[in-house]
Amino acid sequence: MTEPVRIPPDDSTLVRVRGLTTVLNGKTIFDQLELDIPRGKVTAIMGPSGTGKTTLLKHITGQMRPDAGQILVDGQNVPELSREALYKLREGIGYLFQNSALLTDFSVFENVAFPLRQHTQLPEVLIRNVVLLKLQAVGLRGAAELMPNELSGGMARRVALARAIVFDPKLILYDEPFVGLDPVALNQVLKLIRTLNQTLGITSVLVAHEMEAVKKVADHVFLIANGKVVAQGDPKTIANDGSPWTRQFFGGEADGPVPFQYPAGDFGQALGFPDAAKRAVK
Amino acid sequence: MSARSVPSKNVFIGSLAQIGGCGLFLLTLLGAIPRSFRYVRETLRQLWFVGAMSLTIIMVCGLFIGMVLMLQLYNVLSIFGGTSASGLVVALSVYRELGPVVTALLFAGRAGTSMTAEIGLMRATDQIDAMEMMAVDPIAYVATPRFLAGLIAMPLLCCVFCAMAIFGGHLVGVTWLGIDNGTFWSNMTAVVNVHTDIVNGVLFKSLIFGAVVSLIAVYQGFTTPPTSEGVAYATTRTVVASSIAILALDFVLTAFLT
Question: Which of A83, A100, A170, B64 has minimal Cβ neighbours within 10 Å of its Cβ?
């Protein structure tokens, strides 16, 4: 286990990652990863598929423990927290899952009301008003009585977003929030993320691949590859920083530091032509 | 969080790992009981689902088992002129063995599989992780209410099963085959012992079987790989493991209780 935390909380940084190392099934996901997520800003985590972006969110929320390193959220080292302390921390964190993760036995209304019913003793009238406010914010007040299986993918994502913000958390983590949204819904979600950030000062971290959407909403971008932060900066200028990582990722090039092909043996041999490579050389 | 099943190529080691994981999961469940008291409504909802919704199959099966048992016994006992004891033998067979064992097997097939499939799908669709993220303990909210519901429902269902089996035996023996009604009931009340046959036979055994089936069902659901194939295997494992556990435990309990 790592040494106890000695880093004091920093007002300008909400999440601080230090020396994060994670190995899953023999593959190194993070190798001494270090990054700071500024308080009150919208930060985007980008990178090639399978690079560990969702895993990083899971480390921040304590769903996964790292092999080494510290993840400080508001000064608390998440891997060292007790179950009670972790749950207390999570009450202040909203999390939007990739596949929405709505409770399928509950209606849209009950899904959004679920955290309120579990953690508060609010009267029913107040719960109803809060839930309707959040559903109105995501444009689905009229769908309150629908069941999750009656929703499209985009609608389910917006309901999950309403549930994630029902407590007005200090930190919201969005895992691929733009996937499956039509242009209208996409704009509304972008506007909502911005509004939440500006009006309530909520810190937002989003994992996304859509550069245009990220440019519209994010204040800061981290590009992660090979277990480290390979580039970071302003979303409008990061693509032009000249590094081979950003050139390949934002240019969508197959050749570059990140191989397009998953490691494999000789292709000719796999097809049953053992001397194909020799003939090609001749 | 929950224990994960340990995949192993060695069947023996794999089975031992499953039993060990199940034991650890039981400790987690028991530890979560005080926290689950705040979810009484969820426990009642599960009690309705695994108990009340299983009544039809339990009643129908109990009725037919009582009827067929009486028919067989009447044919055999008539050779020795002992048909008046048919009702008594039906009662003893049902109270001591058939009631708890068949009810538990039906319970595993009806309620156990649905518990495993439901929890497995909740895991596959990240609903369990979502609860964790909303600071709601899934062991206390999902697992323990189902375990407690199974524990409470099984003895009640077993009582219903036994009552229906006796009724079925009476229907065939007295109404159809003409055994004297007074003999049917008086033999039964004279020989059936409340402590050894009802408390030990019906209530205690069914309580243990209810705990075992619910534990296996919930454990399989929580440890299933989050894929459609994983949920299918977990559901099958619930039935297979529960059936073996019920029959093996029945032997052990009978040996100790008689």
Answer: A83
Whether pLDDT at A4 is above 50: no
Residue A258 C-alpha, separation from nearest chain B C-alpha, in angstroms: 29
CA distance linking residue A96 with residue A161, whole number of Å: 6
pTM over cut 0.80: yes
Handedness of CA A132, A136, A142, A143 (dihedral sign): negative
Please report residues of A whose CB lies closer than 8 A to that of B130: 95, 97, 101-103
Residue A69: in which H helix or E strand, if any?
strand A68-73
pLDDT digits (tens, 9 = 90+) for B193-227: 999 899 988 999 999 999 999 999 999 999 999 88
Q: What is the ipTM of this complex?
A: 0.82
- Residue showing tokens 């245009």: A212
CA within 13 Å, CB half, B175:
8
- Tell me which residue in A63, A91, A93 faces B129 most closely, judged by beta carbons: A63
Query: How confident is the model over B121-147, as a mean pLDDT?
Result: 94
Question: Could you give the residue ranges of the DSSP H alpha helices within chain B?
Answer: 11-36, 40-50, 55-80, 86-93, 99-107, 113-124, 127-133, 138, 144-170, 181-191, 205-223, 228-257
Contacts of A54 in chain B (CB under 8 A): none
- DSSP class of residue A178 equals T
Please, what are the domains in chain A? 10-92+170-177+205-255 (3.40.50.300)
Looking at beta carbons, which residues of chain B come within 8 Å of A99?
A: 125-126
- Distance from C-alpha of A41 to C-alpha of B121, rounded to nearest angstrom: 36
pLDDT at A107 over 80: yes
A167: closest chain B residue by CA: B134
Which of A88, A91, A101 has the CB atom closest to B130's CB atom?
A101
At A264, is the pLDDT very low, low, confident or very high (cuts 50, 70, 90)? Answer: confident
Q: How far apart are CA A156 and CA A120, in angstroms?
A: 24
How many Å from the N-terminal Cα to the C-terminal Cα in chain B? Answer: 40
